[in-house]
Write a structure and sequence with these properties.
TIM Barrel; 12 strands
């Protein structure tokens, strides 16, 4: 029997989703420069929880001040952030949604104008004006990911997702193109993935078996080979430490770059893994009700919705009520997006997506 969008999902840790929809961890730049939660970001996220996203994930939240990736980023690197996170987690859960925070560090992708100093990276990167982390700093980075997870649990979040995708610092460690270290954190794939596994294992140890724990990975960009992502994914599954894998594929249905003769698309390659008790969610060009069902039919456990979740705060309700639902066509007006819970700042950011927001007429 095929998976239905309205079906419940139960994770190995015992957490339950009321349906198969997750709000993607979307950059929105709405919070304060010190990492504190703003009313605008609170409104944007809780509006989606109220409208039946089974899981609401925050934007990428940095675990070190130097790991800030963009202006207006929500932080989780200090106990000073706890009040906002408690408020947010409580509100998301009050609507029957699962509250998850994404733990993040931008590494070499931290702009100097944002962090006020040179960015850090596994190795020196002249291109990105980034310096290599010392071994002591690598250990501190690990501890700060772990402490952020502990802080998140104290704030009432149901779980965390470790951001190992999109070219941020854990991807930088995983990538043979970027990571040129010669110690235990560089060289072989085992060494390049060591930090990720140490973080995951320690979060599970410190936060307990009932805490929801996921990892986000992505192939094909920033030097990440699909073959290596598959190896790391299977090792994460086999470790019995995580509850879900979140694979960001950019486009679920495209053919892989690494296997030129393959008839399988990216998603079908990922689905060849033995997932055991680990749930799978994917993101990448899932925009309509038909896309949702297509992905679920292939065997994905729940879908990650980005673009359509911006356009429709109640996208899950619409798809459950009408499996053929398609979102409003772009471009949309600023007034439309404001009604969907986006602030002026978020709307300005969305102008980076070509053709998403209507041009303002003089």
């Amino acid at each position: 029997m095929k998976n239905k969008p309205e079906d419940h999902v139960t994770f190995n840790c015992g957490t339950k989703l009321k349906n198969r929809f997750m709000l993607a961890p979307l950059t929105n730049r709405q919070s304060y420069e010190n990492g504190q939660l703003s009313n605008e970001e609170f409104h944007w996220l809780t509006m989606r929880a109220k409208s039946d996203f089974g899981l609401v994930m925050t934007c990428a939240s940095h675990v070190q001040e130097i790991g800030k990736g963009f202006s207006g980023q929500l932080g989780i690197f200090s106990d000073d952030h706890k009040y906002g996170h408690k408020k947010l987690a409580d509100a998301i859960k009050s609507y029957g949604s699962v509250a998850v925070i994404q733990l993040h560090h931008a590494g070499m992708r931290s702009p100097k104008e944002v962090i006020g100093q040179k960015a850090v990276c596994p190795s020196d990167s002249e291109k990105h004006n980034a310096r290599a982390l010392t071994l002591e700093e690598v250990h501190q980075l690990k501890d700060d990911f772990i402490n952020a997870a502990i802080r998140a649990k104290q704030c009432g979040y149901d779980g965390v997702e470790v951001h190992g995708a999109h070219g941020y610092i854990l991807t930088q460690f995983l990538s043979s193109e970027i990571n040129k270290r010669t110690d235990n954190y560089g060289g072989s794939l085992e060494n390049r993935s060591r930090l990720l596994f140490e973080i995951v294992d320690a979060i599970r140890k410190h936060c307990g078996e009932n805490f929801l724990l996921g990892v986000r990975l992505s192939p094909e960009k920033f030097g990440m080979k699909l073959s290596e992502i598959k190896i790391i994914s299977q090792q994460l599954i086999d470790s019995n430490q995580i509850d879900f894998l979140d694979i960001s594929l950019w486009d679920c249905f495209k053919l892989p770059e690494e296997y030129l003769e393959s008839e399988l698309n990216l998603l079908e390659h990922i689905l060849k893994l033995d997932f055991k008790n680990v749930k799978l969610t994917v993101a990448g060009n899932i925009r309509t009700g038909n896309d949702v069902q297509k992905v679920l039919d292939l065997g994905v456990d729940f879908v990650t919705i980005g673009r359509s979740g911006i356009l429709h705060h109640d996208f899950p309700k619409r798809v459950i009520e009408n499996p053929d639902f398609s979102p409003i066509e772009n471009p949309v007006s600023e007034d439309y997006l404001k009604r969907e819970g986006l602030s002026e700042t978020f709307i300005t950011y969305m102008r980076r997506w070509e053709g998403f927001v209507e041009d303002v007429k003089p």
